[in-house]
Amino acid sequence: MPRPPTQPASPQPSEQPAPSEQPAPSKPSKPSKQPEQPAPSKRASAAPAPNGRTGRPPVTSRAEILTATRRLIDRDGWEKLTIRRLAAELGIGPTTLYHHIRDKEDLLVQLLEHHISQLERPELPADPRDRVIASATALHDALAAWPWAAEVLTTDGFVGLLDESALWMVEGIVSGADEHGCTQEQSVHVFRSIWYYTVGEILVRAHSVRWPSGGEPPVFRETFDAEKVPHLAAVSGRWHELALRDTYRDGLRTFVDGLLAAGAPGARGPGARGPGGGA
Mind listing the pLDDT tens digit for each residue in 88-104? Predict the structure, then answer.
């Protein structure tokens, strides 16, 4: 028959550590160690989860979108830029981007506007001719470092795509022509002619430096049939050397002088009125 409760089978209370020695009270302090684990904001920078998403909130910063766009263009070229690739670069879904942009064209226009807003804006000359030249030069220099922007804007009517804050160079050309005495039609013609000249110079130089497929550009031929092209034959030995010279500003001044002269009162240029202001 079992012995009364005095049996040594229950010495457990005496074998347990004293309350001060028990580790149990220290367990509730574990929550204080939790900050050592990666916070949700840190995990957002981890590799994208399936579908190109991460755990962070949707991108709301226009600057972040434009920075990623510039990074992709510099790395792969603007032709390969797509909304899907940009979304993957940012670690978000394409749908999120459409809250900020309409399409690829809108994205590139926003990027160009941002680029122009970062440029130092010079004080344009009061003299109409000098203002046209200074504005055109500023336009050339702004796009020379971004040839892709010139390619994006190689369509008539691009002026209507840009915000007014990015059009000060265009305004400088048109206002200079207008104050020189050109009609509205002539002033637009002056700008479009300068624009074609400027974009052409930028794209030719850009494609000459970046030859397709990474190959070497073709070697300019040194001899021509003098009977068929006597003047080319005479200069062929120096053609490559002369073609490398930067003559944009010299050509611009000559070009502007001719355009403004054609648009002077009484001149018969594109869009010009007859002598005496007649139709």
Answer: 999 998 998 998 999 98
